[in-house]
């Protein structure tokens, strides 16, 4: 169930999926302040997706995971981990008594994927990964664990990740991924066939 919260915003041209670790270099004063608060107070923050300079309504609530380096000027190398999907309801600029923006967001708790649904994805995922790599691929027996895990294994680009996080149920996301995998498989097989024809000619 979605729950309204007021959280800081860190708009970026990326989509961090729940369960995904993402690496960032922090250099702007407002985001240095945000990361310092995340370090000192344990606050979470939102990464809304930005495309063509426009901040979109969906993104991911993340938590600071590791600060790898702090430079003399205060710049930082960090990693964050994705936790939940949010939908932005209202932007608050600036966040109360802060340099960074905030927002009223609806935060959705990720559903647990049904094993029967994941079983439908696994053979397609394995076939695609093997075709892409050009050699046998072994998947960990307990992966994928969710639709987001499938998307991470596929290394989907930001636009496709954004389409995925807009879907409201795990069943919808898995159905979307099955269709996407079928398209990717067809495209990859055509590429390989063209390569083979080129070699023979």
Question: Care to describe what's here?
Answer:
The structure is a single chain. By secondary structure, the chain is an alpha+beta fold. The protein folds into 2 domains: about 5-110, LON domain-like (Archaeosine Trna-guanine Transglycosylase, Chain: A, domain 4, Roll); about 115-200, no CATH class. The chain has 5 helices and 6 strands; from the N terminus they run ββαββββαααα. The protein is elongated, with a radius of gyration of 19 Å.
In short:
The protein contains five helices and six strands; from the N terminus they run E-E-H-E-E-E-E-H-H-H-H.
Low-pLDDT ranges? none
Derived from helix and strand composition plus strand pairing, the structural class reads alpha+beta
CATH-derived architecture of the largest domain: Roll
Give the overall pLDDT as a whole number.
Answer: 91
Radius of gyration: 19 Å
Question: Strand share of the residues?
Answer: 25-35%
Summarize the helix and strand pattern as letters: EEHEEEEHHHH
In this structure, how is the largest beta sheet organized?
6 strands, antiparallel
Percent helix? 25-40%
Shape: elongated
Number of helices: 5
Distance between the termini: 58 Å
CATH class of the largest domain: Mainly Beta
Number of strands: 6
Number of self-contained structural domains: 2
CATH topology of the largest domain, by name, is Archaeosine Trna-guanine Transglycosylase, Chain: A, domain 4
């Amino acid at each position: 169930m979605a729950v309204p919260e007021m959280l800081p915003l860190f708009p970026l041209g990326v989509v961090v999926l729940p369960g995904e670790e993402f690496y960032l270099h922090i250099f702007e004063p407002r985001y240095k302040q945000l990361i310092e608060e995340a370090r000192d107070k344990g606050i979470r923050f939102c990464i809304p997706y930005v495309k063509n300079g426009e901040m979109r309504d969906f993104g991911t609530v993340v938590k600071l995971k590791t600060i790898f380096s702090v430079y003399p000027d205060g710049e930082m190398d960090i990693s964050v981990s994705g936790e939940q999907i949010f939908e932005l309801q209202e932007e608050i600029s600036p966040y109360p008594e802060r340099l960074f923006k905030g927002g009223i967001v609806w935060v959705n708790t990720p559903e647990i994927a049904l094993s029967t649904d994941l079983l439908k994805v696994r053979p397609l995922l394995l076939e695609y990964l093997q075709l892409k790599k050009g050699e046998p691929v072994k998947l960990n027996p307990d992966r994928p664990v969710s639709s987001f895990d499938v998307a991470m294994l596929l290394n989907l680009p930001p636009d496709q990740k954004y389409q995925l996080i807009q879907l409201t149920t795990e069943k919808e996301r898995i159905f979307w991924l099955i269709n996407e995998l079928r398209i990717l498989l067809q495209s990859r097989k055509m590429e390989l066939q063209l390569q083979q024809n080129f070699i023979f000619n």
